[in-house]
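Hello support,

Our group uses your service weekly, and this is the first time we've seen a run hang past the timeout. The protein is Alpha-1,4 glucan phosphorylase. I'm not sure whether the cause is the sequence or the server load. Input pasted verbatim:
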Amino acid sequence: RIYYLSLEFYMGRTLQNTMVNLGLQNACDEAIYQLGLDMEELQEIEEDAGLGNGGLGRLAACFLDSMATLGLAAYGYGIRYEFGIFNQKILGGWQVEEADDWLRYGNPWEKARPEYMIPVHFYGRVQHGDGETKWVDTQVVGMGWWSC
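Update from on-call engineer: The timeout came from a worker crash unrelated to the input. Re-ran successfully.
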């Protein structure tokens, strides 16, 4: 399994934020209208980025959003897991996780940076099988991503 390091924390959907931040909201709204499309419908199609919605990650995202609003230059680093937040179910008394495949259609706001692949040690995971439990995968490969 490959985990990716992201160069920005996400805060939900990014289409409208990007248009506002680039000063293109009115121009984009007009262009979409002239094409016979509805901007609100397009915005609803966009997936929410499955990268966390609480705790320190959310605090960091709000901090970066505030700095962007104030025009302060900054970088944020976080973990960009390909399946994001998981959906939880309880089956037979056990927690069962289902992946949130938020990247199934890709993300137009980011670019992979494979030249920045590095090993990341995170102490592994537990694997159950054949009546025994093992500690495996003590390293993953992190790849840099640039996002706007």
